[in-house]
Amino acid sequence: MSTIRVQTAQNVSLEYEIASLGDRIIATIIDSLIIGAWFVGFAVLAVLPLASHGRVSSSGFGPLAILLMILAYLPVVVYNLVCEVFFNGQSIGKKSQNIRVMRLDGTVPSIGDYLLRWLLRIIDLQMAGLVAIISIAASQRGQRLGDMAAGTTVVKLRPIPTHAATLAGISPLAGYQVVFPQVAVLADHDVALVRQLVQQARARHNYEVLNEVATKVKALTGIQTDLQD
Known about the structure:
With 229 residues, the protein is mainly alpha-helical. The chain contains ten helices and four strands, in the order ββαααβααααβααα.
């Protein structure tokens, strides 16, 4: 099992398991089915009604036919790029397999990283995706060519362990009971952001920000408590 190690803002080392080739293939198949459904839906809702009225001819490529081709293929071309940029490194297929794109240093990829991965899909998808399959299988970090160029890989997402101390390699106190296990829904970068906001708010005695942070955490985790912010 291949993993990558991430050092968090709390000086805790986290290990993420590299997504298996099977997970990535299944995710790609699901994304392909979604793209296929888009083509079918577009044909039924747009092309066929216009063709039935004689506005689209199969023998010519007029302005309307060209416009329809652009409208049909543009979402397909940018599907993976848009999903990864706006859905934190996940397409719908990746989300179904609980995997996402991550930089090798554990940070969130930049738009440039996503763009580079997207551009090199042209090469990775050659021979029905055989190029990508070979590179992922041969790479110790499960990288296709686009990942190698962008310094990224695809990892499995795991729930944050309830015992954070165990994660840090420190044995918890005997008899210790976790007070708010609901925080497991927060990602590591969420916790880092909360810590940063709390430190800044306390240093500036900005209790309004503390209240907003506490309220947001309660909303995300479902925690109900009368403790001070």
